[in-house]
Amino acid sequence: MKSMPRFAPFAPFTTVTAICALAATLLVAACSAVAPASPKGFDLQAHRGGRALAPENTLAAFDHAMDMGVTTLELDIGLTADGVVVISHDTVLNPDHTRDASGGFLRAKGPAIRTLTLAELQRYDVGRIDPATSYGRQFARQQARDGERIPTLAALFDRVRARGATQVRFNIETKLDPALPGETASPEIMVRALLAEIDKSGMADRVTVQSFDWRTLALVGQWAPQLQRAYLTSSRTLKDPRWTAGLRLEDFGSAPQLVRAAAGPTRRPVIWSPAFNDLTAAQVREAQTLGLPVLPWTVNQRADMARLMDWKVDGIITDDPVLLRELMRERGMALPAGR
User: Fold this and answer.
1) Beta strands of the chain (E only): which ranges?
2) Is the pLDDT reported for residue 2 higher than 80?
3) Cβ proximity of 318 and 45 under 8 Å
4) Looking only at Cα atoms, what is the longest distance across the chain?
5) Among 27-36, 42-51, 159-168, 279-288, whose mean pLDDT is lowest?
6) pLDDT above 70 covers what percent of the chain?
7) Interacting residues of 168 by C-beta distance below 8 A, sequence separation 6+
8) To 10 degrees, what angle do helices 302-310 and 321-330 make?
9) What is the pLDDT of residues 196-231, one digit of tens each?
10) What was the pLDDT predicted at 167?
11) pTM (whole model) above 0.85
């Protein structure tokens, strides 16, 4: 594997887990004194490239998002059988938006991406959704782009560079499920491959790594502490220590305190990204007092966006960046430049 001079040497994950578990309680107290976060501006994140408008996690979607103007491209990654970092939310091929070489939608879940080489993966078309599915009905405005393939992360970096989109950031989610370890690469293997790709791109200062599986964030914190991290949470994952790298919510009293403890000492503020329906105004204030910017997901209704903006969240992850831009414009907020 390509050497990574910008990142710290790798260490066994068991060491990371032990350190986090032993130091967590002390870290909460120590980190409570961190100054409140002071973001440069409101972060408009296009979820999966803005899947309400274009096929999710495709180069077409990311181009469309950059054309309209967003702060951050939010995306998900996995690894192929030959170790290539590709952009996909699903760990297996999703029949709702995947067609085979004959042009027909898959009739059931396809093989795990981890079992396919990149060449095999490229035989599938992900440029439109099946309108007969609940997914298709949910995003009926999505414009099909036949011929789109699951892209590599390197291809996205190249596309952004070719466009000269120097201000666009990347929020990259590692897709793992600790309850289904056989469907993906291990946290160590996935993080190593991701860090190598980020290092090769030269865009580390524009990347945030996010995950529900906090094991990967612990590894990023050790191996590449200069990278920003975002701790994703849902009501389900907060109750299961398999997702939170062994830490238990009841030991810390609140989700912001748990995130702060899991992050440990950091070079830059880590982000808390909760499910927006789980969030309260009091939690936003608590998190920001702890130095945690708050970026809820995935917010698609105008009333929900407005409520969260009234609470002073630091950004919003949305499938519909056009709607969020409209609301930002109405409020006199600075808009990220488009093409």
Assistant:
1) 43-46, 72-79, 85-87, 169-174, 207-211, 228-233, 271-274, 315-318
2) no
3) yes
4) 59
5) 27-36
6) 88
7) 66, 70, 71, 72, 73, 160, 206
8) 50
9) 999 999 999 999 999 999 999 999 999 999 999 999
10) 96
11) yes
Measured distance CA(69)–CA(56) in Å, rounded: 17
Whole-Å CA distances, 321 to 23, 24, 211:
39, 37, 21
Identity of residue 239: K
When the pLDDT of each residue in the chain is averaged and rounded to a whole number, the result is 91
Domain regions of the chain by residue span: 17-88+151-330
Q: Which residue, chain included where needed, has tokens 């009333």? A: 303
Helix or strand holding residue 19 (H, E) = helix 13-31
Phi and psi torsions of 200, nearest 5°: -65, -35
Copy the structure tokens of residue 270: 């880590």
CATH code for the domain defined by 17-88+151-330: 3.20.20.190
User: Taking phi first (over 0 means left), then psi (-120 to 50 degrees means alpha), and beta for anything else, what does residue 255 get?
Assistant: alpha
**Beta bridge mates, 125:** 99
